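FORM 7B: Structural annotation worksheet

SECTION A. Query
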Amino acid sequence: PVMWLNILSFVLASMLVVTGVAKRFALWFILRFGKNASSIVLSFMVINIVLSLFISATTAKAAILLPIMMVVAAVYGASQGNRNNFGRNLILQNLFQINMGAASFLTGSGANLLAASLIGGAMGIDIFFSQWMVAAFPVALCLMVIAWIIGAKIFFPLSKEERIPNIPGGMESLHKELDKMGPISFNEYKSIGIFILILGLWVTDRWHGISPTAVAFIGAIWALLPKIGIVKWNDVDIPWHLLLFSAGAYTLGAGLNVTDLPSISVNAFFDSLGLGESTPFWLLYVLLTGVMVFSALIMQSKTMRAMIFIPIAIGVASRFGYPVLSLAFPLAMLIEHVYVLPFNSKPALLLYSTDHYSWSDTFKFGITMQIIAWLFSILMAMT
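SECTION B. Predicted structure
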């Protein structure tokens, strides 16, 4: 089911991209609500959250929004190698928001789906879209607001000149781009209808019991039907190499679960340290979440991190008699913190290529947000 949901998510994402709905929505929202520097960054926050509901590839979201970001940055004086704090804020905030948007929803990334399947398999339950969203979205939203304050008020404060457009009428280029798309087509209306239908069924899944995979099947079949559909199969952009990698990771994860290897390994490790059953929960929590969040500095693959650390958390919870969710789910919420250095994720590398910020800029902003996210996770657990 997890692999099918991955594939179907790419079908639905392609529907939004091919018909132009994703681009039209981003352009319209920026033009409607982006009246000044602060409102523009907050507008991108909303756009990233909405796109994350369907587009599970963070690189695809970055690619969709990058041209719009570049135009907006130029309007506010950041272009052709001319760096300023607006450009730094715009790009780095978007990088953070792309990842936090993915963390907000079960379908936000393949790594989330893997983590949910591992946790659900260990507990013998299904983790619903609505359950993940209720727990993860408020945390991600709080972190996005904190990131905006940290970036715009502390690390890259905006001068009075940077708060207003430097190029008179510069936003007109976005108006022209939106006008060039013409009126909303019938296919776009159909895409929006499918989007709303599927989202409604996903959000209410714990009440009607239809799995997210079955719901996605309905939407994807509708989108691909000859004559009355929206996209052709050849228009669907599915990264099969990533899906094959994910399939291998899921298989290994299932093997770890069947052989009980995480519990065996965890028991051996804690026995060697001499830590008994009286080890306090807070110590285990701080250790596991710390390793999870900072492992993103050296490991590019979110799927691999999920495959390694979620089973370990399950094994630790089993050894010490704590609920699996109490340790495994907080680790799952930290999967998407991959924004500190350009090589930590593909969106990070793509946005670094804009030349709007330096390694030191992304490191000081990113490592600060990683530490805050870790402390936020600890605060949530202890209260």
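SECTION C. Observations
The chain has a mean pLDDT of 87. The first helix runs from residue 2 to 18.

SECTION D. Sign-off
Analyst initials: ____
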